[in-house]
Specification:
The protein has 280 residues and is α/β, with parallel strands linked by helices. It has eight helices and ten strands. It has a domain of 65 residues. It is 34% helix and 24% strand. The strands form two sheets. Strands 6-7-8-4-9-10 form a six-stranded mixed sheet, sandwiched between helices. Strands 1-5-2-3 form a four-stranded mixed sheet, with helices on one face. Helix 4 packs across helix 5. GO terms for molecular function: ATP binding.
């Protein structure tokens, strides 16, 4: 397969970005393959092209194993693509470019809540007084005031995920990369954190790349939704979400919301059935 540009395969570029449409994330001709021990190559992603604009919330949905999380990890620079490239547009040199949030919390059990949240600030050399101010502000914002000295072993799953969210937001990144951050939570808490995330992202104008299996979640949060095919994962279609901001949870009862969720499922059903058939 031909790479998307004349740059070497697998390149990830950071550039000041004065190109078209203010794309914060540009994925071009991306392929990712790996070789399990004793088996032939597996192509997880093939010929993926995607742009996420500045301040945009884009969710990626698709069947299990289609490469959604792999795509996020490639964008984050945690995995190197086989072909193609990712270009990230930096605008604030003093701020982290990306901050990832994963389903499995990724917080350190031997550090207190406060110490977990301030980790990125300490690494960046932020003044201790300023770091403390920012940590306490975000712990308050995610509902964890009073738990600064608690350890993760004494927290519920929802509280741990709030710590992970605060740790991402406190460093004030340009881009948030979120891999099913609410998947392990109960339905009630999931809705609470969805609404809080929506409010925070709109207030601070973050660019968000969000992986989810949940069509309801994608519709509530997103400006656009990328539908991925079964493996090897490709972007089948990009769908504009027609609802304005601010959004309220009551939007879920809107007939157009219900209709769009049905449309999304109709577009994905065949890909999901392909995966289910291959697993039988």
């Amino acid at each position: 397969m031909k790479a998307a540009s004349d740059s070497p395969p697998g390149q990830l570029d950071l550039h000041p970005g004065h190109e078209r449409a203010e794309a914060k994330i540009r994925v071009e001709g991306l392929e990712y393959r790996y070789r399990p021990r004793g088996r032939d190559d597996v192509v997880a992603l093939h010929d993926v092209d995607l742009e996420v604009r500045r301040g945009e919330f884009v969710s990626v949905v698709g069947p299990s194993g289609c490469g959604k999380s792999t795509l996020l990890r490639v964008i984050a620079g945690l995995q190197k693509p086989t072909e193609g490239r990712v270009r990230l547009r930096r605008e604030e040199p003093a701020s982290p470019l990306v901050a990832p949030v994963f389903q499995e919390y990724s917080i350190f059990p031997w550090r207190t809540v406060e110490a977990n949240v301030r980790l990125g600030l300490d690494a960046a050399g932020i003044d201790r007084r300023e770091a403390t101010r920012r940590v306490h502000r975000w712990l308050d914002r995610v509902g964890l005031s009073g738990y600064e000295k608690a350890y993760p072993g004494n927290l519920s799953g929802g509280m741990k995920q709030r710590v992970a969210l605060a740790r991402a937001f406190v460093v004030e990144p340009e881009i948030l990369l979120m891999d099913e951050p609410f998947a392990a939570l109960d339905a009630q808490l999931r809705k609470v954190l969805q609404e809080e995330l929506l409010a925070i992202v709109r207030e601070h104008q973050h660019t968000v790349f969000f992986v989810t299996h949940n069509l309801d979640e994608a519709l509530l949060l997103s400006d656009r939704i990328a539908l991925m095919s079964a493996r090897p994962g490709r972007i089948r279609e990009l769908i504009d979400v027609p609802f304005g901001h601010p959004r309220q949870p009551e939007l879920r009862q809107d007939p157009e919301f219900v209709r769009m969720e049905e449309v999304l499922w109709s577009k994905l059903r065949g890909e999901v059935q392909q995966v289910a058939g291959g697993a039988s």
